[in-house]
Specification:
Length: 428
């Protein structure tokens, strides 16, 4: 299947912005230029001056937590977890996780996300939803451990993660990757952390962890171990594998230097961190140090929406105000944080850019919408003016998943009906 996007605009970073033609062949971008390609496409999409940008990557999510959207709002993290979320999660079933994941995937596709990193349970059901919907995902089984003498070889949760890796890693034409995961330092013993880090190294896969999300978490780790959570995870070997560290709100300058040196990717979750009152991540320090900063939504229970565009726009604004410097975040740089940097974090280096040979992960954006008129800078329009409603098309690996406000792989009305049924049965 080949698609020609004719007469579209690109953002300023590509050097030429208007009257551009993009040819997609199978799952890759085959041509980008002013001239029309010689090859005839199976389908021609007249761009009419609309904007094409790389699709968004969500590098931290708990997709099935759409089931808890709005449940336990306005509580600090530890009360929210212990009083609301953990008890509710005890009632989860395979069926509810499948539909919760599918609702999340549908929301993300509509909001321009083509790939997400997930940390949760019942991974077979989330993987099935990913496979059926056409999106991409790095899935990981969240591991907690509290027994210092844990038998890591016979732990059911760890073995579940290994079994899922064996069944799903690389499936759906490579759209599905299975990472390893440690929930956090405060929910795991050192023996388990060392084993999971070694397991990720042996399997040549990534690792997903919550790191220094709150001041109390950060300080308690120092009291327990005499070092910060980042230093602790370095000590157990977790920084020696491709690591995505979520949140990192309370990291020290030394932590940031360590993460930069070890090639850690940081998933910045500005909306969730603000909503839970956790604080604001030191964005400029990380970028200046060379850390690969990406964007995540966290779960819908602590965010309520799964929109990387909203994270992008919040991040672009809050750091200007927090640092009292409007040049702290630049539009072109921030778009890369939401796209290419996320692809790198997921080990998808052939994604996240509009270049020949890259995977065709694209968004077609309506520039005729009132909120985008005029657009003196397309990068500025994305970071300050664009809304999710402006997304006309979401393309993942060359496949159109969403077009003209309709899904191509998801039966929206059936999904809504099944999701309501599941929610009423398990969470009324």
């Amino acid at each position: 299947m080949s698609i020609l996007f004719k007469n579209v605009n690109l953002t300023e970073s590509y050097g030429f912005t208007s009257s551009v033609n993009i040819l997609v062949k199978d799952d890759k971008i085959a041509y980008v230029g002013k001239d029309l390609p010689r090859e005839t496409a199976d389908r021609v999409i007249e761009g009419n001056g609309n904007l094409v940008i790389p699709a968004f990557y969500n590098t931290h999510c708990h997709s099935a937590m759409t089931l808890f959207r709005g449940y336990g709002d306005d509580l600090p993290l530890q009360r929210w977890l212990n009083e609301k979320i953990f008890p509710a999660e005890d009632r989860l079933t395979s069926e509810s996780v499948y539909y919760g994941s599918m609702v999340a995937i549908a929301e993300m596709i509509r909001n321009g996300v083509v790939s997400f990193s997930d940390m949760y349970f019942f991974l077979d059901d989330t993987a099935r939803a990913v496979e059926e919907s056409g999106i991409k995902a790095n899935l990981s089984r969240s591991i907690v451990s509290f027994d210092p003498e844990i038998d890591v070889l016979n732990d059911s949760r760890i073995n579940e993660g290994i079994d899922v890796f064996d069944r799903w890693h690389g499936k759906a034409d490579g759209r599905i990757k299975i990472d390893m995961s440690l929930h956090a330092e405060y929910t795991n013993v050192e023996k388990c952390c060392r084993y999971l880090a070694e397991l990720a190294k042996e399997r040549k896969t990534g690792l997903q962890i919550h790191v220094s999300e709150t001041a109390s978490e950060h300080d308690a780790c120092i009291e327990r171990h005499g070092i910060t959570p980042t230093e602790f995870f370095d000590r157990v070997g977790a920084l020696d594998v491709p690591l995505t560290a979520a949140h990192c709100v309370w990291v020290t300058d030394e932590d940031i230097a360590l993460m930069a040196r070890k090639g850690v990717s940081v998933a910045h979750n500005p909306v969730s961190n603000l909503k839970l009152g956790s604080g604001i991540m030191p964005f400029k320090k990380m970028m200046d140090a060379g850390v690969n900063v990406t964007l995540g939504t966290d779960g819908a229970a602590s965010n309520n929406r799964l929109s990387v565009l909203r994270e992008l726009q919040f991040a672009t604004l809050i750091h200007k105000g927090n640092d009292l410097d409007p040049s702290v975040t630049l539009a072109g740089e921030m778009i890369k944080v939401a796209t290419k940097n996320g692809a790198i974090a997921q080990g998808r280096e052939d994604c996240g850019e509009i270049k020949v040979g890259m995977k065709a992960d694209l968004l077609l954006v309506d520039m005729s919408a009132m909120n985008n008129i005029p657009a003196y800078s397309f990068e500025s329009a994305v970071c300050y003016a664009m809304t999710e409603e402006n997304i006309l098309m979401t393309v993942c690996d060359g496949n159109i998943l969403y077009e003209d406000h309709a899904y191509t792989t998801i039966d929206e009305e059936r999904l809504k009906s099944e999701a309501r049924r599941v929610i009423s049965r398990y969470f009324d």
